[in-house]
Amino acid sequence: MSDDTVRIVREEILSDHFLPLKNVTYMQRRRDGELQVQSHEIYDNADGAAVLLYNRAHRSVVLTRQFRLGARLGGHDGFLLEAAAGMLDGADPAERALAEAREETGYAIDAVQPALQLYVSPGATTERLHLFVAEYERDRKCGDGGGKREEGEDIDVVELDFDDALAMITTGDIVDAKTVLLLLHLERTVLGRHGEAS
């Protein structure tokens, strides 16, 4: 696509309570050559990082459980099992993933391995998510985790058998998109299914 296919005409901030909600008007040249003007509301979200902790020897993963208002409003009870995650706030994605692992799970991790980069919901938000995996050791727990109380976080730390976690995708007990993708990435690249070579 050429640069002149889409041109931003106007941006209007509708709300800036937590993250800016904008009404963006843009002009797009359609494939048939016709110009059309569209207007959409979009959240100008900060980018984020997430990390799924795994232990190769025990075939386990560490997830968090916390309340998510959007899931509640969408018909779920709102308490989601997720990989540790947070907004970048100007930090390097890998550094943020390391920090979130410590804050949310209480595990000290030396390094993360890149898995994926993706746009979360590009029709409604600008957010890009950097996904990582990292191996943890049970004897390297350096705190309780749980997140930052001053930021309103109230996070449970949940260690699961890897194959049980995979099964929870099918049963609908794990419905967070980034976590599903990271579990499938681990299955494909590191752990495989039980009894399979990885």
The CATH homologous superfamily of the largest domain corresponds to: Nucleoside Triphosphate Pyrophosphohydrolase
Could you give the order of the helices and strands? EEEEEHEEHEEEHH
CATH class of the largest domain equals Alpha Beta
Give the number of DSSP strands: 10
Keywords: Hydrolase
Cofactor: Mg(2+)
Protein name: GDP-mannose pyrophosphatase
Catalytic activity: GDP-alpha-D-mannose + H2O = alpha-D-mannose 1-phosphate + GMP + 2 H(+)
Defining traits:
198 residues, alpha+beta, Nucleoside Triphosphate Pyrophosphohydrolase, 7-stranded mixed beta sheet, 3-stranded antiparallel beta sheet, 4 helices, 10 strands
What this model shows, in words?
By secondary structure, the protein is an alpha+beta fold. The chain has 2 domains: 3-43, no CATH class; 48-191, Nucleoside Triphosphate Pyrophosphohydrolase (Alpha-Beta Complex). The protein has 4 helices and 10 strands, in the order βββββαββαβββαα. α3 (162-171) crosses α4. It is elongated, with a radius of gyration of 19 Å. It catalyses: GDP-alpha-D-mannose + H2O = alpha-D-mannose 1-phosphate + GMP + 2 H(+).
Summarize the structure.
This is GDP-mannose pyrophosphatase. With 198 residues, the protein is α+β, with helices and mostly antiparallel strands.
